[in-house]
Amino acid sequence: MNRTRALLVFALALLVSCGQKEEAAITPEMAWEKVSAILAQTKDVIVLDGVEKTDLKYQGSEAPSRGDWVVRHFLSDPENFNPYTSNDAGASRVNQYIFQTLLYAEDEPPFALKGEIAKGYPTVVKDGSSYEFEIREGVRFADGEPLTAADVLFSFKVVVNPKVLAPHLRNYLKSINNVEIIDDGTRVRFSCAEPYFQNDLVIGGYVEIIPRHFYDPDDLLADVSVTSLIDGSWENGPQKELVEQFAESFNTKFNRSSLGSGAYRIADWESDVVTGQKVAITYNDDYWGEGVEGLGASGHVDKIVFNIINDRDAAFIELVNGNLDYFGLRALQFKNKSWSPEFMARFNKGVYYPGGYTYIGWNNAHPIFRDRRVRQAMSHLTNRESMVENLLFGLAETVEGPIHPFRPEYNPNLTSYAFDPDRGLALLEEAGWQDSDNDGVLDKEIDGEKVDFEFEFLVNSGNQLRKDVALTLQSELQDIGVVCEIRELDWTIFLDRVKNKDFHALTLGWTGSLRFPPDAYQIWHSSQAEGRGSNFVSFMNDEVDDILEAYRNEFDSNKRIAIYRRFQEILNAEQPYTFLWSQRGALAYSRRYKGVNWYPAGAEIREWFVSPDDQVY
């Protein structure tokens, strides 16, 4: 049965079976009114079967079947497929199926860390000075080669190599001063120069283990110690050329080539990875973890296909046409287009808070935005409440900082930068901005030169919500004499300009986990403004640096909460970002999938399966 015919049969069957249900008898407007009431009642995860709340967990008794695909949407191509040098969400979503870590976190609270490549939780010296992992027997990479302690050691050598373009990962490994294989060669010890309260999670869950034979076939790092890479002594020794040669190869050769130990792999790089069209990953029939007790779900579908459509409206049409199975609905699509009987017959919906936040980033090193009064003014001139109401239809909450309100570290006493054009204009005047030549544009003398208040606002093409943010701000600013020019760029070009700090302002979002305590070092520490680090707005503050460093070494959760609340107070005053909102995600997914379970962080596709009679691929 082909896909189109199968979907039609499936939808018609559901329409018949649901003919007496309430959702078939009410209008989309009535449906939205009812759903709005449900959403207003709770901030918990909600699964909607039509307009009714349904169970978060699969209630059926059918055993999972192998077969079929999940086709989901990608807005743009992943930055690259190197698990260490790539730092965008798209690459992470693909790589999570291809690579594995020493530990994985369970999906339900308290999110316990369990053994994946490691046999189990590490042996920890009481003061946190070392962590010892025993490597599980029988783990194999997708090419059939065994994964050993030598591959674990190699992986960490790569990450701590300062010439490898992975500063975002090295940030979390700053406390480590050595990694070595011990005992009978099945255990790996991580020694720490100083304590870090999340070392178990960082060592065990952040670094994906890669095969030495694939990524370093000439064994260039064989005789290079982790200690020398960390303390810099490699630069003055005979291995300098080898370290640099490896890094040059690793940084460039593996952007479109990968090998991991996970259940999925890219089977054919020519046909499965097509720029601007798709990324397809295929289940490895020889996956080592199939049926191994204690591991998470490995996957039941043969393929997971990421269709690249850089326009969300076009992607919604593909969903309706049966060419997508899984799609993150824009707020307008969720409100206006997903409540017809036909749509509800084909798709269920999950609504949840994925964590993270959306923001406007100001280049703090730019002459206009280096004055915090200007950044404060921009926040008062950004009508966030109107955006949430009119662009997101209430499917978000405004935020005042980077810590999610659901986390205990959140500071509830932060100043709210409410929309207040008068206060914004007053702050600009206080900072010296005025229309001195009566041309309708504010100006100021900066570094001995008259400067008009004009700036460029970057957005990535295809993301209408981010463009709407820029357009809304542009409209407010033009009324007070500030010129905001909006420029849309392809994601790859956009990301390159961001990393090179070649921008004035932009809208982006950071993902985040509600499961574990936050660590803001990567984004806010001054050291991360160097090179292509994540502090691309160039925020510099000595007290924040001290807080971020002290926080990492504090094992008392109450003390961590106290110092992070001070951290939020500083950001709140400095406004390096205009913090916009934490959005509620709304996902539509085909009803043909069974085994769908929803957790605080969302649904796990690896648990999904399709009955043989409903399979369309």
Description:
This protein has about 625 residues and is of the alpha+beta class. The chain folds into three domains: about 5-70 and about 310-350 and about 590-615, no CATH class; about 75-255, Dipeptide-binding Protein, Domain 1 (Dipeptide-binding Protein, domain 1), CATH 3.90.76.10; about 355-585, Dipeptide-binding Protein, domain 3. The chain is built from 21 helices and 28 strands. The strands form eight sheets. It has a six-stranded mixed β-sheet with strand order 17-23-16-22-20-21. The chain has a five-stranded antiparallel β-sheet with strand order 2-1-15-24-14. Helix 17 links the parallel strand 20 and strand 21. Helix 14 (about 370-380) runs antiparallel to helix 16 and helix 20 runs antiparallel to helix 21. The radius of gyration is 26 Å and the shape is globular. It starts with a helix and ends in a 7-residue tail after the last strand.
Briefly say what this structure is.
With 617 residues, the protein is of the alpha+beta class. It is 31% helix and 20% strand. The protein is built from 21 helices and 28 strands.
Characteristic terms for this protein:
globular, Dipeptide-binding Protein, domain 1, 21 helices, 28 strands, 6-stranded mixed β-sheet, Dipeptide-binding Protein, domain 3, alpha+beta
